[in-house]
Design a protein that fits this description.
alpha/beta, 6 strands, 33% helix, elongated, 6 helices, six-stranded mixed sheet
């Protein structure tokens, strides 16, 4: 006869963790592989995970935390579908290990809106129909969010004519700065228009 699990105590522990703002997650152990604990602050909530050290940040988000907004496209850092923000800077989540970001603050597409209120960039994507199938959209949104912060900080791109001054966000600048995010539906004109609109709204 199998011993009964005290589900009430498990539920109480879970609710206690949620109330404290820290979520603990245990992964299946693989023989011969020691897990490593990583503490990730994702969209404002701290998650403590025991992970195989080989797990990428993308797989930790999708497979361990159920945050499936970030997409696995090429899994080689070439398409940008997995783009997230780490400490405000955009990265390809498929190219970095989760344990490398112990203590970091991470924003996924699920964290861009405030409740039911879309961010200005998300609203601009809706207005300009900046998507078709939507598979690349989470990465486009996270990348564009990070890119707009780079422009505000005065970072030049390869097409910036005056690197000593503040960059002007022309369509050419947007295309260059977003060139790491592919859209196989070719919604690029609408994506550029949406980003330009959001930049003006935020100005």
């Amino acid at each position: 006869m199998q011993p009964k699990t005290n589900t009430s105590s498990i539920d109480a522990a879970r609710h206690g963790a949620e109330a404290s703002g820290v979520m603990n997650h245990t992964s299946e152990r693989v023989d011969g592989i020691d897990t490593v604990q990583a503490r990730l602050r994702i969209n404002g909530t701290t998650h403590v995970l025991d992970l195989d050290p080989r797990v990428t940040l993308l797989d930790a988000l999708r497979e361990h935390l159920g945050l499936t907004g970030s997409k696995k496209g090429c899994d080689h850092g070439q398409c940008g579908a997995c783009t997230v923000l780490v400490e405000g800077r955009r990265i390809n989540a498929c190219l970095t290990l989760a344990v490398m970001h112990d203590g970091d603050s991470i924003t996924t597409v699920e964290g861009l809106a405030t409740g039911d209120v879309l961010s200005p960039l998300q609203a601009a994507f809706v207005r300009h129909d900046g998507f078709q199938c939507g598979y690349c959209t989470p990465g486009q949104l996270c990348s564009a969010t990070g890119m707009l912060e780079e422009v505000r900080a005065g970072w030049p791109s390869v097409v910036t004519t005056d690197v000593a001054g503040s960059p002007t966000l022309t369509d050419e600048e947007i295309r260059e700065r977003m060139s790491g995010n592919l859209c196989r539906c070719s919604a690029y004109p609408n994506i550029v228009a949406a980003i330009a609109d959001a930049a003006e709204t935020d100005a």
